[in-house]
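Record type: monomer structure entry
Structure origin: computed from sequence
Chain ID: A
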Amino acid sequence: MALVAGMTKLAPFALAPLLLRGVGDRPPRPRAVVAFVVAFVLSAVVVMLPVLLQHDLVPLWRDSIEYQSNRVTPFSVWGLWGGLNVTQSLLQGAVIALALAVALIPVRRGLVEVAALGAAVLCALQITLNYWLYPYIVWFFPLVIIALVAAHPERPRPAEAPLPAAEPEAAPVRIRIASS
């Protein structure tokens, strides 16, 4: 699914190392890594088949990669102020490092950690993009919700624990109004 999402919007490709690692106490075995990479590449070829059969990648490059990288909006730091190209490039390199690091760190991880790391990678990636609009929140928001809800599951009461005793009702208070 990450591949298909990445073929429509490029940002989900940043989640590939995280999804390769998955959940558990240890990294995937070499055989699982090879299977993941082969499935990823084969899926990319299948999705790209209409473009590959035309033997012309120029329209794909021009209409997707080049177009997306040249868009500017006043809603991003990079579109609002100029002269930050070096800073933006350094941060984009840091995002790549983060996307690769989450494949290795932390060693023990469950659903909460994977969802939170995925949200962090997508947030970091969005911060470094030229073009950003508030509807892009839907990219990371589901992962944030999964991490928050899964991190705080409802704890059922033990069956043998007695229910707390009800407080005794207070006697009604009578107020006497003196008449003159």
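Annotation 1: Helices lie at 2-8, 16-21, 30-53, 58-70, 77-80, 85-101, 111-127, 137-151.
Annotation 2: The radius of gyration is 26 Å.
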